[in-house]
From TrEMBL:
Molecular function (Gene Ontology), one example: ATP binding
Keyword NAD: no
Keyword Metal-binding: no
Keywords: ATP-binding, Kinase, Nucleotide-binding, Serine/threonine-protein kinase, Transferase
SUPFAM superfamilies reported in the protein's UniProt record: Protein kinase-like (PK-like)
Lineage: Eukaryota, Fungi, Dikarya, Basidiomycota, Agaricomycotina
Similarity field: Belongs to the protein kinase superfamily.
Name of the protein in its database record: non-specific serine/threonine protein kinase
InterPro entries, per the entry: CK1_Ser-Thr_kinase, Kinase-like_dom_sf, Prot_kinase_dom, Protein_kinase_ATP_BS, Ser/Thr_kinase_AS
EC id: 2.7.11.1
UniProt xrefs under Gene3D superfamilies: Transferase(Phosphotransferase) domain 1
Residue span(s) of domain Protein kinase: 18-304
């Protein structure tokens, strides 16, 4: 639900001690506000969802975050409860989303994408080791931290997460074609199997992660502009474009290992445990061997900050990469250059 659709009588305080301030974001289920703790004066994020009496997505988020807590990239949840006609969760305040950053930067350099990919992969592996899948991996759901944590990506929004196995017995849920009429997750970053209505499992989080990483490097995806209402089987649907865009075209200009990762994640079977280390080793191809660890750190700090919020330009990625910002990450590694053309962009776009 977007902010504009929200009922007007929003609570002024949450749990008596968090004073609500300006809105900072909204998504499909709730609206997020800054809030000050009146005792400590610390600022938090509060996510609100209208209380309907039915199952609460943010209550489920709270329980999952409590289970995952303590791991890098897991936002701390401080309180969950009801306030007026809303369910509310109080979270640590984080920085901008990767979508916000990309909106300003257009693309991220391979060293940063390696850094993000490596950390996000570990987070996804950790979530999976706790028997959950995330289910909606996309740039809007990846935020960077504040202060010391400004180079740590946080995977947020466990609103559609679910258990893919019984945590006590380890038994995997059975495969089925979902009965629901609409897909889970976001079409742009959803796996092909998710479009086809299959029950989600570990493989789908990883395929989504690859689309996210490709999106970071290209600044776009061939199906980015596809209208949500486009019929699933039409040639211009996101599903059709994912199925018909040659992997080499999608990964053109990147190290060949990116294509291998995408093919690998698409070939995983429903209940297969992914080989996370294999993916991690392939992601290494994005690393820039000619940069020192200190250079990489300052590059990351610089690139993961919104451009209009920093003054220094001496760490401009272009200057560190000799002017070729986009694929300067792996000068010695073999890149796919013989690229087949992508399918034509739909006429209505
Ligand atoms: N802890 C947080 N700190 C700062 N901003 C946040 C935080 N959590 C969410 N947001 C902002 O609110 C947006 C929506 O939050 P999200 O949890 O994804 O809600 P939804 O389930 O509605 O998609 C995010 O994309 C982000 O911009
Ligand atoms: Mg979200």
């Amino acid at each position: 639900m977007g902010l504009l659709n929200f009922p007007v009588n929003i609570p002024i305080r949450i749990d008596g001690r968090y004073k609500l301030q300006e809105p900072i974001g909204s998504g499909s289920y709730g609206a997020v506000y800054k809030a000050t703790n009146l005792i400590s004066r610390r600022v938090y994020a509060v996510k609100l969802e209208p209380h309907s009496g039915g199952a609460s997505t943010i209550e489920q988020e709270y329980h999952i975050l409590k289970q995952l807590k303590g791991q890098p990239g897991v936002v701390r949840a401080h309180w969950f409860g009801r306030e007026l006609n809303f369910n509310a969760i109080v979270l640590d305040l984080l920085g901008p989303s990767l979508q916000d950053i990309l909106a300003q930067r257009k693309t991220l350099s391979p060293s940063i994408v390696h850094h993000l990919g490596d950390q996000l992969l570990s987070q996804i592996q950790y979530i999976h080791s706790n028997s959950y899948i995330h289910g909606d991996i996309k740039p809007q759901n990846i935020l960077v931290g504040l202060g010391d944590q400004a180079i740590t990506p946080y995977l947020i929004d466990f609103g559609v997460s679910k258990q893919y196995r019984n945590s006590a017995t380890g038994d995997h849920i059975p495969f089925r074609h979902a009965r629901r009429s609409h897909m889970i997750g976001t079409p742009i970053f959803a796996s092909i199997n998710s479009h086809l209505g299959a029950e989600l499992s570990q493989r789908d989080d990883l395929e989504s992660l690859v689309y996210v990483l490709i999106y970071f490097m290209r600044g776009s995806l061939p199906w980015l502009q596809v209208d949500r209402r486009t019929r699933k089987n039409s040639k211009s649907s996101a599903l059709n474009m994912k199925q018909t865009t040659p992997v080499e075209a999608l990964c053109c200009g990147f190290p060949a290992e990116m294509s291998t990762i995408l093919i690998y994640t698409r070939m995983l079977s429903f209940s297969e445990t992914p080989d996370y280390d294999y993916i991690r080793s392939l992601l290494m191809s994005l690393q820039n061997d000619s940069l020192s660890p200190a250079d990489i750190l300052s590059l990351i700090r610089d690139e993961l900050r919104l451009p209009n919020s920093h003054a220094s330009t001496h760490n401009d990625p272009k200057s560190l990469c000799g002017g070729e910002a986009q694929f300067c990450g792996s000068p010695l590694k073999k890149r796919v250059t013989n690229c087949p053309p992508p399918p034509p962009t739909p006429a209505h776009l």
